[in-house]
Q: What sequence folds into this?
């Protein structure tokens, strides 16, 4: 009897697992475009936009799947947001957005291997693989047929997009510049940062050179021996290692082109990983370390530990990119907003170079050519997607996606300038941005570049509009900006020169190409030797540097530089 | 009655014993319940452990994910050549073997010692507490454990503070433990012991309970002290378990784990922390070089297979219990 029961139990378990398996399969196939035309009923509810290009009138509602290869945001349907709903009313199209969970290459690899894709895809860093697999359909004809606004916005870049990927347009990168260039008043890019109290105590000196900066930090720590301060830290964790290896490029007066410094006149691309600039930078850190002013744990800490240190009030200065320290800086700023005395610990960006002449920290108008959104061969109705994108690129919709709705999230004064009231700014917290759709439509769609200007002269990005920026400043912000005689943080820095290829790191490199191998090997070398060089006894520095030079010399650096120069020349040629 | 049937059986002309296939089928019918119960596991094994072996073909191709199988370009042993001429792979191999070796030896010695000692503890409450405390770290994931280890070993961590307190080092001379490449194996070994020693004792403690208490009583009568009882009764009593576990672990010698090395590794200790799994991730998967990754995986499997069989054979030769 007992035996029979056992067998029956086993059979039940097996049957259940079989069901579970087949369920899994069903779900798998359902996730693909099959549920696209789910609700064809509500056709009459979608009024055609008045300024719609010569297109067939009202449309059935459809839902397309949209995979975004960047982790960290919520999955949602675009029509659950206010902006998305309005756009759905105009076009009848809804996107079901799925973000990456886990490893990008694994996820994309699975899609490629199974040959089923979502309708729209942003493969992020795996874009070369997706293109190689032939997953994106060429968009040229579709744009010709349905895309007057796409042509208007992307037209100036068409030739370059085609040149990059074998004569056809396979995806739309984000951020083509439209109208005048509007600089970011905040510093989201690289800078040498220092606590505000340091500048206050020193009487707001002009800090231009690395030596001045180091002296500033040293003096401050020396004056406050009881506070257990750290002079400088550096971020080295995993792929973020560039925060430690990039400064020589900036110190030499170049913007972030990745592994090369490009001469604007000759277009020569020079690597700097083994150059004198890098040696000088590491020697500086080595000296700081010898004096006990550099945090040794920099080379073993992970990103979270690093951010925690920046919020601890103990770190006097560091180099990093604004977008990487956002979390820490926001915590410090929020504290300062509540309590003015905390303003001392907010970090202030400084344009530091070796010789104190021209800095190029600010990004020139850029064009990231190897990231973007494309339509896959699994898509049932690419025309509708292109039409949606085209509609989104209309100026009124660009205003909608970045400023929102007049009277609700922004106001217009009698001169036609856009601004936000204090209440509106207070209302725009994270939760609101998510519900309204600012977060969903912030990036990741074919759209104007962030530094674009609308045809009426307003900035596309509210944060770039001087009126809005001024509203966001605290008393402490105003004081320090006034002391330096500037209105925005960006004014501390020099204007960026025109570099059509910028950023050079985005010039596509094939998987497994000599350029890619060079980069991998270089990364391995720098990750191994930089810590040694910085933490070495000063007397041993030269010896280790020579050893590093020997290893570095084995790489085909000349070939890498030549390849880059050729690519840059091509881009400049196309841009003319 | 019983006698009679036995007699009857012996006097009857012996029925021809079924052999070969017939015997197999007969046994199959006899043991159908057991067979039925094992079917799901065999199916599972086949689907998840044998079907994927088909993927080994990738190692011999210039593999392009999008192409159908028939269009792939075959390149023979090219990727194996590349693998074995790669310095980093040889370093990874050395690190893997070293860390597994450390793990194996330390793991066995500490677990068996702790089991023996716990077995001698007579106070049940104390024993329970020690046991629970010692196997708690096993339930912490490596991500968290690595955080704890990093904090402990940081320049301002407890170990450096202790060293300063004892006057072994001066302020400003703190050790950057995770930055000393050659110390990594030691740190890894110690962390693994801390994390797994309690857990590993469980199986030995279970084996010890199966030893007949009469043996201990007899030994005590003969005047054997505690150490002698441990040496002559407990250890021989759990020898079969030790040997089976040893053989199994030798099969895993090329699996030195992934998480601790990945999480504790950094640029400074990479020459000692990078093992085969990390090598595969870094140079295979992260660069879409699937053939290289597959080749490394195949190499691991084949070597593990050889090791397992040799260990088993050796045990057989020495007349010990063995796995199969």
A:
């Amino acid at each position: 009897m007992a035996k029979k029961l056992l067998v029956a139990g086993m059979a039940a378990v097996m049957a259940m697992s079989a069901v579970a398996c087949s369920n899994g399969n069903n779900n798998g196939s359902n996730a693909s475009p099959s549920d696209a035309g789910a609700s064809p009923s509500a056709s009459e509810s979608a009024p055609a936009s008045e300024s719609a290009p010569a297109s067939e009138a009202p449309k059935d509602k459809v839902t397309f799947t949209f995979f975004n290869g960047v982790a960290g945001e919520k999955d949602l349907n675009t029509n659950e947001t206010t902006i998305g709903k309005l756009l759905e009313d105009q076009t009848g199209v809804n996107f079901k957005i799925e973000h990456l969970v886990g490893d990008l290459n694994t996820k994309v690899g699975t899609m490629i291997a199974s040959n089923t894709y979502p309708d729209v895809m942003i493969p992020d860093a795996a874009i070369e693989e997706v293109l190689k697999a032939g997953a994106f359909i060429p968009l040229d004809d579709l744009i010709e047929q349905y895309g007057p606004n796409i042509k208007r916005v992307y037209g100036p870049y068409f030739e370059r997009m085609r040149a990059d990927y074998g004569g056809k347009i396979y995806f739309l990168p984000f951020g083509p510049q439209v109208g005048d260039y509007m600089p970011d008043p905040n510093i989201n890019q690289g800078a040498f940062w220092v606590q505000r109290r340091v500048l206050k105590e020193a009487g707001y000196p002009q800090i231009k050179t690395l030596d001045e900066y180091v002296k500033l930090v040293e003096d401050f720590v020396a004056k406050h021996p009881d506070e257990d301060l750290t002079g400088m830290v550096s971020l080295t964790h995993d792929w973020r290692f560039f925060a430690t290896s990039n400064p020589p490029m900036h110190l030499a007066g170049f913007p972030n082109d990745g592994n090369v410094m490009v001469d604007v006149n000759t277009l020569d691309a020079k690597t700097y990983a083994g150059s004198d600039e890098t040696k000088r930078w590491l020697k500086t850190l080595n000296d700081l370390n010898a004096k006990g002013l550099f945090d040794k744990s920099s080379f073993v800490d992970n990103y979270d530990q690093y951010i925690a240190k920046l919020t601890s009030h103990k770190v006097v200065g560091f180099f990093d990119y604004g977008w990487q320290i956002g979390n820490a800086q926001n915590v410090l700023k929020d504290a300062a907003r509540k309590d003015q005395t905390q303003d001392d610990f907010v970090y202030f960006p400084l344009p530091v170079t070796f010789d104190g002449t021209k800095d190029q920290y600010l990004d020139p108008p850029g064009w990231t050519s190897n990231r973007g959104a494309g339509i896959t061969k699994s898509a049932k109705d690419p025309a509708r997607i292109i039409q949606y994108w085209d509609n989104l690129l209309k100026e009124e919709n660009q205003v909608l996606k970045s400023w929102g709705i007049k009277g609700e999230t922004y106001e217009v004064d009698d001169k036609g300038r856009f601004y936000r009231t204090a209440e509106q700014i207070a209302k725009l917290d994270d939760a609101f941005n998510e519900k309204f759709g600012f977060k969903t439509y912030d990036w990741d769609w074919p759209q104007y570049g962030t530094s674009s200007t609308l045809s009426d002269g307003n900035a596309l990005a509210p944060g770039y509009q001087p009126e809005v920026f001024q509203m966001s400043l605290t008393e402490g912000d105003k004081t320090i900006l006034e002391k330096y005689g500037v209105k925005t943080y960006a004014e501390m820095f020099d204007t960026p020169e025109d570099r059509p290829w910028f950023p050079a790191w985005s010039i596509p490199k094939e998987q497994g190409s000599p350029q890619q191998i060079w980069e991998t090997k270089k990364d391995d070398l720098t990750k191994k030797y930089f810590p040694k060089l910085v933490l070495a006894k000063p007397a041993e520095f030269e010896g280790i540097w020579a050893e590093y030079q020997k290893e570095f010399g084995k790489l085909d650096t000349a070939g890498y530089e030549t390849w880059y120069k050729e690519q840059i020349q091509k881009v400049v040629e196309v841009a003319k | 009655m019983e006698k009679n049937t036995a007699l009857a059986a012996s006097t009857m002309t012996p029925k021809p014993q079924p052999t070969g296939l017939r015997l197999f089928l007969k046994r199959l019918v006899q043991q159908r319940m057991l067979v039925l119960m094992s079917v799901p596991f065999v199916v599972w094994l086949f689907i998840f452990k044998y079907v994927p072996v088909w993927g080994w073909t990738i190692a011999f191709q210039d593999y392009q994910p999008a192409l159908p199988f028939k269009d792939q370009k075959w390149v023979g042993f090219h990727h194996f050549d590349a693998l074995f001429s790669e310095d980093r792979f040889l370093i990874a191999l050395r690190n893997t073997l070293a860390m597994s070796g450390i793990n194996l030896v330390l793991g066995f010695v500490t677990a068996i010692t702790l089991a023996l000692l716990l077995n001698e503890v007579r106070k049940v409450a104390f024993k329970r507490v020690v046991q629970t405390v010692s196997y708690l770290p096993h339930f912490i994931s490596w991500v968290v454990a690595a955080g704890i280890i990093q904090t402990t070993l940081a320049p301002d961590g407890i170990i450096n503070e202790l060293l300063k307190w004892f006057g072994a080092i001066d302020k400003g001379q703190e050790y950057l433990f995770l930055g000393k490449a050659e110390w990594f194996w030691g740190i890894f070994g110690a962390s693994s012991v801390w994390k797994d020693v309690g857990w590993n004792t469980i199986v030995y403690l279970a084996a010890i309970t199966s030893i007949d208490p009469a043996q201990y009583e007899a030994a005590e009568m003969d005047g054997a002290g505690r150490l002698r009882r441990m040496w002559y009764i407990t250890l021989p009593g759990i020898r079969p378990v030790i040997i089976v576990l040893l053989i199994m672990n030798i099969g895993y010698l090329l699996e030195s784990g992934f998480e601790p090395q990945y999480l504790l590794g950094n640029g400074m200790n990479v020459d000692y922390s990078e093992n085969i799994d990390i090598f595969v991730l870094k140079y295979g998967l992260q660069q879409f070089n699937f053939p290289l990754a597959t080749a490394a995986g195949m190499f691991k499997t084949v070597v593990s297979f050889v090791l397992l069989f040799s260990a088993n054979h050796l045990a057989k030769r020495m007349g010990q219990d063995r796995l199969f």
